[in-house]
Specification:
It is a single chain. 35% of the residues lie in helices and 15% in strands. The chain is built from six helices and five strands. Helix 3 links the parallel strand 4 and strand 5. Helix 2 packs parallel to helix 3. It is globular. The protein starts with a helix and ends with a helix.
C-alpha cells in the first residue's frame, strides 16, 4: 500500500494525524525585565501592524514609540519589511534624534529576533523581548497601535502603497504635533519633548 492510498483511507474514515507545531524561537533579552522610561531615548517600543490595499495586497506598518515622550518615531509603510530594513530605519531615526535608545522593547516576531537587529543593537542598546502571548507587557505601543487602527486604518481604503504611506504618515504627524495626552499634562508629544528637562 502506498502513502496516497493510506491518506485516502484515513480521510474516508475521518481520521487525522496530530501535526506537531514548530516551537517558536524566543529572543534573548539583554536587559533587566522592567526598564522604566525616565527620559527621552531611554526606551523605544517597536511593533508591526498589517493592513491591505484595495487589490488585496498586504501593507506592513512599522511603529516606533518613545515611551517617555509618547512620540511616534519614523516608521516604514511597505509591502514587506525585513530585519535589515528595520535596522536601516532605526539608523535614520537615531540620526534624526541624535541619540540611540538605551533599550528596545519588542515582541518575538521574526524581524525582531533576527541577527541583523541584534547586530544593530550591539552592546550599545539593550533588547527586552516581551513573552509570547503577553502584549500587555508592551503597553505604550499597544495603545498607539489601537489608536492607529481605530482612527486611521479602519476608516481609510488604500488604493496604492503610495496612498497608504501618505495617509498613515499624515496621521502620525497629527498624532505627534496636535494630539494632547493627559499623561503629558495635556501637551502633544512634540510639545512635551520640547520642554522635557529629564
Amino acid at each position: 500500500m502506498n502513502h496516497k492510498k493510506l491518506q485516502r483511507l484515513w480521510r474516508e474514515e475521518g481520521l487525522r494525524v496530530h501535526v506537531r507545531r514548530r516551537r517558536k524561537r524566543v529572543g534573548s533579552s539583554t536587559v533587566p525585565p522592567v526598564p522604566t522610561a525616565t527620559s527621552a531615548n531611554v526606551v523605544w517600543a517597536i511593533d508591526f501592524q498589517f493592513d491591505s490595499t484595495t487589490d488585496g495586497r498586504p501593507i506592513k506598518i512599522l511603529s516606533v514609540v518613545d515611551e517617555h515622550t509618547r512620540e511616534t518615531l519614523g516608521g516604514l509603510v511597505e509591502r514587506s519589511i525585513t530585519a535589515e530594513a528595520l535596522a536601516a530605519e532605526l539608523n535614520h531615526i537615531v540620526a534624526a534624534r541624535g541619540a540611540s535608545p538605551a533599550v528596545l522593547r519588542l515582541d518575538n516576531g521574526p524581524e525582531m529576533i533576527a541577527a541583523a537587529l541584534a547586530q544593530w543593537a550591539g552592546t550599545q542598546t539593550g533588547m527586552l523581548f516581551i513573552p509570547p502571548g503577553e502584549p500587555w507587557k508592551n503597553p505604550f505601543i499597544e495603545s498607539f497601535n489601537s489608536r492607529l487602527r481605530d482612527e486611521c486604518l479602519n476608516i481609510n481604503l488604500f488604493w496604492s502603497m503610495t496612498h497608504a504611506q501618505v495617509v498613515i504618515g499624515d496621521w502620525k504627524t497629527e498624532y505627534n504635533h496636535d494630539r494632547p495626552h493627559s499623561s503629558l499634562g495635556y501637551l502633544s508629544p512634540v510639545a512635551y519633548a520640547a520642554v522635557c528637562t529629564h
